[in-house]
Structure formats: structure tokens, C-alpha cells
Write a structure and sequence with these properties.
Blueprint lengths: L20 E9 L5 E9 L6 E7 L16 H4 L4 E5 L9 H5 L7 H16 L3 E11 L1 H12 L6 E5 L5 H6 L6 H8 L6 H10 L12 E7 L8 H11 L8 E6 L11 H16 L13
Parallel strand pairs: 3-4, 3-5, 5-6, 6-7, 7-8
Antiparallel strand pairs: 1-2, 2-4
Helix pairs in contact: 3-4
């Protein structure tokens, strides 16, 4: 043991006990037969199937390394299962895992995310109709594209500073990150295949009809990576769908891409988003706190 993070007692004064929680690994089989790893955590007395929050990223060869989160306890203590989809485009399984989810292969990231969601339901972990998708930045692209592919799978989607209009961004050479970002997404100006690929998976450009999940999107006015106009356009398009129903919210902050500044504002923002997820999952009341011993 090198380090143990201190955890304060809960609001009712009960101490945190790590033995009250469990974590495990699942494998979901993608459309092409590849096994996609999924990290899952829950309180050990959570009855299955349970409401579930599924988080995804899948870009830049970034690995979603499983780790402890104090904020996650707010979900776990209310009987929510939290899952992390290690989709292709990330770096969890090496360089090949990344290259299978970038450039022309980018759609694999989104189909992997949908595969993981369906596997959680079929395995009896996630309750049908009570699975929420969550992602930020490039993970917002993953969530936005996934709900276009399978809108009936998710009851809610929380997207933070999401890269939701990638085609417009990659066509605008005067934006600060567009040229360097083309190594990740492709160059739609010079490459017709890149143009067609990005256009086909753009969350903003491929919104369908029928029932969609409830949505909470956040944006930042001083974001130098993802313009606030991207989540705003996406929300407007979702609201304008024929027969649109449900809750589609946009929350705009003054900060940048990494979130609000200030000692406590990041916690307030996280509390707001978790409260919204719990409400959409009908899990706000939660489970009684167990006592180990």
C-alpha cells in the first residue's frame, strides 16, 4: 500500500467502507467479433438488473484507467451500476486498439459503445430502459453518435463540452486546433473519404426520428477546443425533430474546456449532472446504507 485517499463520512455521518463495494471486468462481443473490455463497479448489495451509467471516450489513444472516485459514490450508494466502455479509439489494448477507432475506422468507436450497452442489458447488469450514457469532449462525440445509432437503448445522455459537429470543425481551417486534429479525424477538405466518413457519423448531422433519450448538454463560452456553438446547435436540432419529446437541456458556463474555475465550482457542476442522471434513472432515493461486519 503506497497511498490511500481519505474519504469523509457521508452526509448522515456514516464512514466510508471500501468492502461495501465491488468491481469487475466484462467483455462485450463487437459486430466484428472483437472483445471489448468493460470495467464495472457497484455496491455489493445492489440488486440486478440495476439502473446504469455507461461512460465512454475512445479517442487520442487515451486509456480510461479504472480508479477510485469520491463523486461516484453518489451513484453507487443509490443502487446505480457504473460502467466504463473501453471502446476502440482509446489505448487500453495497445496501438492497434487505437488505430481501429480513428480516421476511416472511427465509426467502430460508436458501434463498440452501443455493443457494450446492449451487453450490459443482456447480461442482466443494466435494467432495460434505465441505462444512461455519459461522455465529455471526444467522449461527447461517442455518446452523440451512439444515441443516433441506438436511441431506444438509452433513457438519458449527459454530454459535456461535446465535439458534436465534427464536420464543420474539421472544414474550418482558421480554428486553432483543426489542422492538428486532422491526424485524429481526417482531412475532409482534401480527402473525399474523410468527408464522407465524418459526415456519416456526425451527431449533429445524423439526428433521426422517433424516440430519443433525454439529454443534458453542457458548453463553455471560453472553450478553445470545442466551441459552445456545437452543443447549442445539437440541442436546437434535437428539439426541432419532428415529433420531438422529452427533456433536452443546455447548460452553458463561462469557463473553458476543462470546466469551471474556482475551488468548489467543479464539485457543484458534478453534483448538478449527477442529480440529473439520478432523476432520469429514477434512482434518486437509492438504497439503504449497509453496515459491514
Amino acid at each position: 500500500m503506497l497511498k490511500r485517499q481519505p474519504v469523509l463520512p457521508d452526509p448522515e455521518g456514516r464512514p466510508f467502507q471500501s468492502e461495501d463495494y465491488v468491481q469487475w471486468r466484462l467483455w462485450a462481443i463487437a459486430d466484428d467479433g472483437v472483445q471489448v473490455p468493460v470495467s464495472v463497479a457497484s455496491r455489493k448489495d445492489t440488486p440486478w438488473p440495476a439502473p446504469c451509467v455507461l461512460y465512454g471516450y475512445g479517442a487520442y489513444e487515451t486509456s480510461l484507467d479504472p480508479g477510485f472516485s469520491v463523486a461516484r459514490l453518489s451513484l453507487l450508494d443509490r443502487g446505480v451500476v457504473v460502467a466504463y466502455a473501453h471502446v476502440r479509439g482509446g489505448g487500453e489494448l495497445g496501438r492497434a486498439w487505437y488505430t481501429q477507432g480513428r480516421l476511416a475506422a472511427k465509426p467502430t468507436t460508436f458501434s463498440d459503445f452501443v455493443t457494450v450497452g446492449r451487453h450490459l442489458v443482456s447480461a442482466g447488469v443494466a435494467a432495460p430502459g434505465r441505462i444512461a450514457a455519459r461522455g465529455a469532449s471526444a467522449g461527447g462525440l461517442t455518446v452523440g453518435a451512439a444515441i443516433n445509432l441506438a436511441p431506444d437503448l438509452f433513457c438519458a445522455a449527459q454530454v459535456g463540452v461535446g465535439f458534436l459537429d465534427p464536420l464543420t470543425a474539421m472544414l474550418a481551417e482558421d480554428l486553432p486546433l483543426t489542422i492538428t486534429e486532422r491526424d485524429e479525424w481526417g482531412d475532409p477538405v482534401a480527402d473525399p473519404l474523410a468527408f464522407a466518413t465524418i459526415a456519416a457519423y456526425s451527431p449533429y448531422g445524423n439526428i433521426g426520428e422517433g424516440t430519443y433519450p433525454d439529454v443534458l448538454a453542457t458548453a463553455a463560452l471560453h472553450d478553445q477546443r470545442v466551441a459552445a456553438s456545437e452543443p447549442a446547435k445539437w440541442v436546437a436540432a434535437l428539439r426541432a425533430r419532428p415529433g420531438a419529446s422529452g427533456q433536452v437541456l443546455l447548460r452553458v458556463e463561462l469557463g473553458g474546456h476543462q470546466g469551471a474555475t474556482g475551488r468548489y465550482q467543479a464539485w457543484r457542476d458534478e453534483a448538478y449532472e449527477l442529480a440529473w442522471l439520478l432523476d432520469r434513472l429514477d434512482a434518486a432515493s437509492g438504497l439503504p446504507r449497509i453496515t459491514s461486519g
